[in-house]
Write a structure and sequence with these properties.
Elements lengths: L1 H25 L24 E4 L2 E4 L2 H11 L3 E6 L4 H10 L3 H7 L3 E6 L4 H6 L7 E5 L5 E6 L4 H19 L7
Parallel strand pairs: 2-4, 3-4
Antiparallel strand pairs: 1-2, 3-5, 5-6
Helix pairs in contact: 4-6
């Protein structure tokens, strides 16, 4: 009877261990702070001059490099479309990107900063005409979710959760949604 009990519990313990390992790995990826308060693991291979910190999030300024990092680490992308002249963009950066919940959720994304004045073709490709716009995509470019206009931290966190769920559904994987 003891052997049978251990046998039926094995899948439960194996699944729990796998989930905890995946959670530990996710915590070191993404665009949130790395485990030691530095650049997260997913961005370690990106040239330092292409990385900017806004609030608690690290952004890649080059979309191709950001999508490559996302593909390499199996993460979706958060594209933040902004412009130097966009007051609402700065307000959103100050409030939402410094929020602890947003920072924790950002660990599951590679964040990419898209300057509308420098990347007009990318804005046109994604149909972005209002700023700020947050477009969530899979590394292969499939759209996951979109937020237009200044978002509060709670609204951004809700959008991030929705994008994570859609990404998990599209990739047949699972994700930890906080």
């Amino acid at each position: 009877m003891i052997a049978r009990q251990k046998t039926w519990m094995l899948p439960i313990w194996t699944g729990l261990a796998a989930s905890l390992c995946a959670l530990a790995l996710l915590a070191t990826y993404g665009c949130g702070l790395g485990p030691d308060g530095t650049v997260p693991l997913a961005l370690k291979e990106v040239a330092p001059h292409l990385i900017e910190r806004h609030g608690n999030l690290y952004f890649v300024r080059e979309p191709v490099a950001g999508r490559y990092a996302a593909a390499t680490h199996g993460l979706p992308c958060l594209l933040f479309f902004t412009a130097e002249w966009c007051t609402y963009c700065y307000q959103m950066e100050d409030a939402a990107f410094s929020d602890d919940a947003v920072s924790a959720l950002a660990e599951g994304f590679v964040c990419i900063l898209v300057d509308a004045d420098r990347e007009p073709q990318l804005c046109e490709h994604y149909g972005v005409s209002g700023f700020p716009t947050v477009q969530f995509i899979a590394a292969d470019g499939r759209a996951l979710h979109r937020l237009v206009g200044r978002q509060s931290a709670a609204e951004l966190a809700t959008g991030m959760r929705a994008a994570s769920k859609r990404y998990a559904w599209l990739t047949g994987g699972s994700t930890t949604v906080r």
